[in-house]
Amino acid sequence: MNHAKNVRRLAAALAVPVLLLTASACGSDDGGGKVSVEGKFGEKPTVSVPKGAKPADEPVVKALSEGRGEKVEKGSFIRIDYAVYSMKDGRELINSWNPQMPPGKPAGGARPQEVLQVGQQGQQVPAKVGEALAGQRAGSRVLLEGTVKSLVAEAANPRSGFAPGDGLVWVVDVLGARKVDAKSEAKGEQAAPEQGMPVVKAPSQKPAEITVPKDEKPPADLKEQVLIKGSGPEVKAGEGLIAQYTGVKWEDGAKFDSSWDHAGATAFQIGTGSVVQGWDKGLVGKHVGDRVLLVIPPKLGYGNQEGSELQKNTLVFVVDILGTV
């Protein structure tokens, strides 16, 4: 969702039980030793980078523990935890196990993780890292070693203090993976709108046509209606939500975004503050296969984002829930 703000763990059966894992991956032949990783899948790892370690020119990928879930492929949607370390001095650069929680997000419960499509840039994770995970299975812990150039970008941001040839170590837990047809949509008979709700026409594989009631004041609170009832699993906070969506402004009915205008199906983590509050409140608890109509007041949309073009608007979304990851 272009205008979105920039966990349920897998069942135990998906992961190989590892009580204490120490594993290594090869660096270049002239490196100063091997990286060691300790810890169980699903928990923050303890990583030791030996002094003098040097990266190979191409990424080195090693499964530290192998899961039994769906295989990651190009185009798969994945949900991951990760930690990143510098080979120069072994310091931790970032990790998702200790995230900075969004304002207003209560302590406990699901926490932010990365949800991305393999081959596409994530909010925090480069596309090259997702591509390096192809062939791994959900439930796996994976060690990646490589240069800034091979894992992040051809040219490093000068302010980062890193050169293209500097080494990075990534430890990635693949929590879930799912491949969905980019043109998928909710199927079934659509319910008539409730009193005061917008009218929705949803032509196949095109943005929904949403007509806002004339001369109606926008609601002060979140309004929601399931237009098509699916039969899939319930959406839980912390999962990656795979969806099609169209959004318009209540005030003039103008469309401001739609997944159909981009590459089709897309995914976001739900219930952790990664998207607007109206999505978190309105979509957690719904079911895969649902088509949901949401009317979101500014206080649950972009009302607290100074400078946003949608800061003062009530937003109307039609969301098809295609799956979770």
UniProtKB/TrEMBL annotation:
SUPFAM superfamilies the UniProt entry points to: FKBP-like (SSF54534)
Presence of the UniProt keyword ATP-binding in the record: no
Secretion signal span: 1-27
PROSITE patterns documented for this protein: FKBP_PPIASE, PROKAR_LIPOPROTEIN
All residue ranges annotated as the PPIase FKBP-type domain in the record: 238-325
Keywords: Isomerase, Rotamase, Signal
EC top class, as a word: isomerase
One term of GO molecular function: peptidyl-prolyl cis-trans isomerase activity
Enzyme Commission (EC) number: 5.2.1.8
A UniProt-annotated Pfam family: FKBP_C
Positions of the UniProt region annotated as Disordered: 28-54, 184-205
Catalytic activity: [protein]-peptidylproline (omega=180) = [protein]-peptidylproline (omega=0)
Entry keyword NAD: no
This protein's name: peptidylprolyl isomerase
Organism: Streptomyces mashuensis
